[in-house]
Design goal:
The chain is an alpha+beta fold. It folds into 3 domains: about 110 residues, NigD-like N-terminal OB domain (OB fold (Dihydrolipoamide Acetyltransferase, E2P), Beta Barrel); about 140 residues, Protein Transport Mog1p, Chain A (3-Layer(aba) Sandwich); about 140 residues, Jelly Rolls. It has 7 helices and 27 strands. The strands form 6 sheets. Strands 18-24-25-26-27-23-22-21 form an 8-stranded mixed beta sheet. Strands 10-11-12-16-15-14-13 form a 7-stranded antiparallel beta sheet, with helices on one face. A hairpin with a 4-residue loop joins strand 13 and strand 14. The relative contact order is 0.08. The N terminus is likely disordered.
């Protein structure tokens, strides 16, 4: 009675092996000719490099012709093999994305390209547009074009082969600063046709209060049809700073890049009257208050920092780097809080899909902490607000405040202690 099922099973396996052998010859077959992997594979060409940072997802990276990189890892292939050292290769495998939106390939096959020429690709660097009315930092792989009343920074995106077939026009990421002299409209509200800056007028117009630039200027923000615009008032001109990001794999990275540009915006000779005096006096009074608080008793509680499951975030324009949990997302934004020049949100869900910030980091002009703690020998500012806490890294003339719920206090301390300028 047991022989018939065994015979039937043998016939079924034999039939499958025959059918597998007649399938696509591009599929991977095992020693019996059976298809073992029909998943379509991605292909990339470049040079394999070993990662220096052991905390980063993946073990290696592939440097592409355009200077960009993707992360690599492999359970099947030794990526440290000498035959892949300093030569051009084509890697094949399945690309997924980390929680930080970084491409990561699980490599299943590598071909060495004998005729590949390794070019010394120049990495993009930050430079500055220095105009009569304003200055702003931008990356030099963006094309800068100036016309009457407008300065545009454009980066053309090389499409994938699939995108190239479906679109006649190349994708572009664009940051624009336009400006117009004040005429009959004496203030920003009149310029935008608003009766007041109350919520009853801002909300119907799709506007929200914000802050922009190194001077922390008051602004109104509008997000419409994929274009984000900030409206700013100078003493003699109105400014519109807008950016639009195309739909591509580096969209999130470029959106954060635009927020970096926005944070570097600086007015020249068109600063609203009384702004500097008001800002300096406010900064001075806040500093005196903090100094008087610190002259009292301070906490000496000591913490240990563990960054074993963290990865790096670096801002070239703001000039700092830090470590944040590997599985998290981040986004740059601006703040309406006085004395805050830049804000970064961190969370475990995509902000594009409605995720909320678990930790908010604010770059500040004065120290907001009321006591101190020690983390691996570093002195950090500290505020206990009951349900939430602030941890402050004291930098060179500025302060990095990490805010979040009290049950994430150790994460806040880890991130603050990892800041480097």
């Amino acid at each position: 009675m047991l022989k018939r099922p065994i015979a039937l099973t043998f016939m079924l396996v034999t039939s499958l092996a025959f059918l597998g052998g007649c399938g696509s010859q591009e599929s991977d077959l095992d020693e019996n000719g059976i298809v073992v992997d029909e998943m379509p594979q991605d292909r990339r060409i470049g040079v394999i490099e070993e990662l220096d940072d052991n905390d980063t997802v993946g073990t290696h990276r592939l440097r592409l012709d355009d200077g960009d990189t993707i992360l690599l890892q492999s359970a099947a292939i030794n990526l440290d093999d000498d035959k892949y050292d300093e030569v051009g290769v084509e890697v094949r495998g399945v690309i997924t994305y980390t929680k930080g939106n970084k491409p990561l390939m699980e490599v299943t096959n590598i071909d060495v390209l004998e005729d590949y020429i390794i070019e010394d690709t120049k990495a993009a660097e930050w430079t500055e547009y220095d105009g009569a009315l304003f200055s702003i930092r931008y990356r030099d792989d963006f094309a800068m074009e100036k016309s009457d009343g407008e300065v545009t920074f454009t980066l053309e995106i090389e499409p994938d082969e699939e995108d190239a077939e479906s679109s006649d026009e190349p994708m572009k990421d664009i940051f624009t600063v336009s400006y117009a002299p004040k005429g009959e409209e004496k203030d920003l509200l009149a310029y935008l046709g608003l009766e007041s800056d109350g919520a009853e007028h801002l909300l119907p117009a799709g506007l929200a209060r914000s802050k922009v630039g190194v001077l922390n200027l008051d602004a109104l923000k509008k997000d419409e049809n994929g274009v984000v615009t900030f409206y700013v008032e100078g003493e003699n001109n109105f400014f519109e700073l807008s950016f639009e990001v195309s739909d591509h794999e580096n969209a999130l990275k470029h959106e954060n890049l635009f927020y970096e540009m926005l944070g570097s915006f600086d007015l020249k000779g068109d600063i609203p009257e009384g702004f500097e005096e008001m800002d300096n006096s406010l900064m001075e009074s806040r500093t005196l208050d903090v100094d008087s608080i610190h002259s009292g008793e301070a906490s000496t509680q000591t913490y240990t920092v563990d960054l074993s499951n963290y990865e790096s975030f670096e801002s070239d324009t703001v000039g700092f780097s830090l470590q944040y949990p590997k599985s998290w997302y981040f986004e740059g934004s601006n703040s309406s809080e006085s004395g805050v020049s830049q804000v970064y949100n961190f969370g475990d869900e995509s902000f594009d899909e409605g995720g909320s910030a678990l930790v908010t980091m604010s770059v500040m002009s004065s120290d907001p902490s009321t006591s101190t703690v020690t983390a691996d020998g570093k002195s950090l500012g500290f505020n206990d607000k009951g349900g939430t806490v602030d941890v402050v890294y004291k930098g060179n003339g500025r302060y990095f405040r990490f805010s979040g719920p009290k049950d994430m206090q150790q994460t806040l301390i880890n991130m603050a202690a990892s800041v480097s300028e």
